[in-house]
Amino acid sequence: MSKEDTLALVKNFPVAQASLSLWVFKRRTIGGFSARSVNTTPQLTAQLRQIVTASVARFEEVDEYELLAQVNEISCLHLQEDETVFGDLQALVDLPPEENLIRNIRHIDNSIGYIVRLRMDGQVIYCVKKVSDVWRAKKASSFFNVVVTGANELDLVDDRALTIAKNFDFFVTGGGILIANKASFETLLSFKHTYQNSFDALQKNAQFSGLFVDVAPLVAHVGTNAMHLRRMAVIEQRRHYADAAYIGRLRAVNAQKNWGIEFDAQGRIIATDASLKTIMQVLLNHRLYSELSLGTFDVPSAAQVA
Q1: Residue 305 lies in a domain
Q2: Spatial distance between the Cα atoms of 32 and 108, rounded to a whole number of angstroms
Q3: Helix (H) / strand (E) containing 130
């Protein structure tokens, strides 16, 4: 399904008429997820429907998901569901809610997120929200407080209890995902772990490591920083480092423009603290020249137009 079709499906979904269930989920130490359903009072159910409607209403633009892409106040990103591990979580929340109810507050403690599942005429939308390591009180302007009642239901309360946010991080339907909060989406679906594995593999790639006199300064610079790991994943994906002509042009332009990247006699990059940011930008192909302003710019992402 295209990004436009997925957006239309979500925006036109009859939220008010759909059956609703609420699930909380955790990441299991042995891998995968665990999830339990939560009964909600009519008041909270109505509020959840309003939050879904308001969250979706702001979407006016949709772009394809890229590792360095960002969203703004009216946009979202689109990704195919089968490119993620969401299917593992979906299989749990598609189980009968009444057979998987929470029994006490311990079943909610340390949850990493919750899902509002909406179903209407065979069509299902999963509205997903990341929570903090443990639910705790937040500013009233941004959150509702809820509590587990004696009937195993979540209800609205005035005092500090659990928190329900007034937005969702991403929506899944029809095999597509619409992402409103990229960082939360990537955390819930373990993308940082994927990026780390990708970078570990890239370091072992002789073609990549052979570009450098010593790749260790770059490895130390990237560390466990999520943004740097995403950048390295894009570098691995685009593989400019494997293009001898590209690297040849890099040496020539670097000398011409005085970008400060040093090379040894064999043409290998000498990574220094002063040049690491520039090295990453040029391997991303994110240092671009404007024919309009006649200036050169570092950009966060780049979509080729010609």
Answers
A1: no
A2: 17
A3: strand 123-130
